[in-house]
Specification:
The protein has 117 residues and is mostly helical. Helix content is 86%, strand content 0%.
């Protein structure tokens, strides 16, 4: 039964990632991967909230399934590599630093917010 929860969450998370990435990126005229940055930081916040407040079934559905399909380390890595290869090394470094800081910050904030409520 657990795999059904994960699959259901992923069925929502994957299209949500694609649509969010396209919507965010279309609003920015920059080589910086704002769409991937947004879904990854948002996913970290949701996972932090779930960690602080949700039971096991909800963590499987929304944490493993939704957030697992919504966030993307592989695309983050690929986009960072492409930035470096195309001479946008400062954007690549900014992507790594900002993603790490914002992602961890969002996860910690989500846990704290969930525990405060």
């Amino acid at each position: 039964m657990n795999w059904l929860l994960v699959a259901a969450g992923a069925a929502v998370g994957a299209p949500l990632r694609y649509l969010t990435d396209r919507a965010v990126q279309s609003r920015h005229d920059s080589v910086f991967p704002w769409g991937t940055f947004a879904v990854n930081v948002g996913g970290c916040l949701v996972l932090g909230l779930l960690t602080g407040a949700a039971g096991p079934d909800l963590r499987l559905l929304l944490g493993t399934g939704l957030c697992g399909a919504l966030t993307t380390y592989s695309t983050f890595s690929y986009e960072t590599l492409r930035l470096a290869e195309t001479g946008a090394g400062l954007y690549a470094l900014a992507n790594v630093g900002a993603s790490l800081a914002a992602g961890l910050g969002a996860a910690f904030a989500g846990v704290e917010l969930a525990q405060a409520v």
